[in-house]
Amino acid sequence: MTTVATTAYLIQKLRELLSQPQGCNLTIKELTAYSAMSRSTIYRNFPAGMQDLCLEMLRQDLQRLLQQKLNSWPQLIEYSISYIVHHRICCLNVYQLLVNQKQQFYLLEMLKQFLLTYIDKQDYGPYFKIFLNKYPYELDFMVAGILYNLMDWFDSQLQAKPEVIIKKLNCGLEMFLFHFNNDTMQ
């Protein structure tokens, strides 16, 4: 099996296991038994084991999200929150595994890269790039706010209604756009 095929297969098997209620306690041993892959094959493709597997699965999900025809921030937020609600168990398990492994920094960087790529694809992308070059902390502030709200929601086991989370995330954008518009009008 090629590296690409092995990776795809392992991510598929990981996703299946994480879609089960006890998935937050998943170990490499359980993944090897379920996938019929050896430990050495898993570690050859994912040197940090479960951490790398979860981050790769999340990265692939974010890439698929970028391929959606979502032309506005509210559409992106609504689609993302709907995805999380629809894949509740898997998303909670991935989050728990990453938090247990203290991977919040990687989540922050992954979300930052995702937003930069999303902004690049928009008509206003070049203007945002100029703004972000002038005020790079603005993106960090926005990403931290998004991650804080999402982590708070996940920590509560997704108890808050999706509409509340959507509203919070859209408010973050409104603040960002306020700073952006004030800067471009000067």
Can you describe this structure in just a few lines?
With 186 residues, the protein is mainly α. 79% of the residues lie in helices and 0% in strands. It starts with a helix and ends with a helix.
Walk me through the structure.
This protein is 79% helix and 0% strand. With 186 residues, the protein is mainly alpha-helical.
SSE map:
Layout lengths: L2 H16 L9 H8 L3 H7 L4 H18 L5 H14 L1 H13 L3 H17 L4 H10 L1 H20 L6 H24 L1
Helix pairs in contact: 1-4, 1-6, 4-7, 5-10, 7-9, 8-9, 9-10
Give the % helix.
over 70%
Order of H and E elements: HHHHHHHHHH
Shape: elongated
The total count of helices amounts to 10
Spans of at least 5 consecutive residues whose pLDDT stays below 50 are none
- Which percent band covers the strand fraction? under 5%
Query: What average pLDDT do the residues reach?
Result: 89
Structural class by secondary-structure content: mainly alpha
* Terminal-residue CA separation: 58 Å
Radius of gyration: 18 Å
Largest sheet: none
Number of strands: 0
Structural features:
186 residues, mainly alpha
